[in-house]
Amino acid sequence: MAGEIKEKLLGNTEENDVDGQVKFRHKLWVESKKLWIVAAPAIFTRFSSFGINVVSQAFIGHVGATQLAAYSLVFTVLLRFANGILLGMASALETLCGQAFGVKQYHMLVIYLQRPWIVLTICAILLLPLLFFTTPILVALGQEENIAEVAGTISLMLIPVLFAFIISFTCQMYLQAQSRNMIISYLAACSFLLHLFLSWLFTMKLNFGLPGALGSTILAYWIPNLGQLLFVICGGCPQTWKGFSFAAFKDLWPVVKLSLSSGAMLCLELWYNTVLVLLTGNMKNAEVAIDALAICININGLEMMISLGFLAAVGVRVSNELGRGSANATKFAIKVAVSTSFLIGCALFIIFLFLRGRVAYIFTDNQDVIDTVADLSPLLSFSILLNSVQPVLSGVAVGAGWQSIVAYVNIACYYLIGIPIGVVLGYLTHLEVKGVWTGMLIGTFVQTVVLIIITLKTDWDKQVMKARERVNKWFIPESPEQSPNEQADVAA
């Protein structure tokens, strides 16, 4: 009798274990689908957008080594600086739109979309002197004068790209918050293919050289933006687009403050590689070093497109679940996103360790540059591995609205640890580029560990309450005709 009871108990335990495994697999499958609905188009879009820069760099590299170095400086120093400010300030939109969509304040999304258009346009105008005075700025930073002169010409031609960032960042975050970003990937793919064709036509066939490549680049940035605007305005988001609103001009100062904290967080990350390029420009044989480093940064940047896709996806998932009031779902979404991105990073780490300098042939036929890329490939591989986790954790911060906290972490880890160690290793021990990059990798590693600890120690129930307070603070009633169900959702 006792044996039978024991067998039944064991049988029930096994059945419960099986049921638990089935439920977990189903939960994992559902969350993975929600994650990839946002991540897949976001990754594809970022690959296409980054591919525009890679294609431009590849064709400009065949125009001349000086032009390639100048273009690399403009994009990795000046436009990255401006990009960091605008993207960082726009990331406040991701927090607000995601949490408002989660709590079903649908009419607020269009107001959140239009406010950054005003703020970021003013910001872009204030950034124009960077492009007007590129040559003296780069010379003052220690870059070679012949490279700085060409960079000055390039930066003036790329002013339209600066303003393209405004529409691009804001529309993407608005659409991602609603998981309606497939249209962005379609437009990005069309733009990339057109850019590839026009770059070949203008530089190789018609011999327009540098102006031809830059003209194609400008078109490639603006075509998707016009498509996104038409999609939003012409009925692509009927639930959230209610037309242009004067409410967008209200409460702009709180938007500026939130945008500044968001901007500080992402700027400090995006400018980190810029410091690496600037420090390299002061070393011996700077042209070869900058070209090789630019190729490595481009390859690392391609992998970063995957991580940034997950950054966007986990930001949406975290903000949506916090808006809905589910702490457990928020934690599970974070675990799935970080694990998925890390597994992809491990695979790419192995691949690039094996490839070494072979990929450099895509960008240049200069053997000195190719050899330098091969020498830097182990550092590139470790950068790829770390970057598979760190941006995803930053996405958690964006979704939860912790941008100011992460900004302080970035200052400490990047600028008080990474860069000083890099300078010591690069200049005092004469490891040059490898030393600087090693020090900066140490900074990234410390930052990743700190973000993991912060995420693990977070009280997510408390974050749910903070999210509800945030959306209620910014809430503007839609109209007297607002549905009773929507009013109940807001009041809950």
UniProtKB/TrEMBL annotation:
The keyword Cell wall biogenesis/degradation does not apply. Keywords: Membrane, Transmembrane, Transmembrane helix, Transport. GO terms for cellular component: membrane. GO terms for biological process: xenobiotic detoxification by transmembrane export across the plasma membrane. The chain crosses the membrane at residues 68-96, 117-141, 147-171, 183-202, 208-231, 252-272, 292-316, 336-356, 376-398, 405-429, 435-456. It is found in: Membrane. It comes from the Eukaryota. Belongs to the multi antimicrobial extrusion (MATE) (TC 2.A.66.1) family. This is Protein DETOXIFICATION. It comes from Citrus x changshan-huyou.
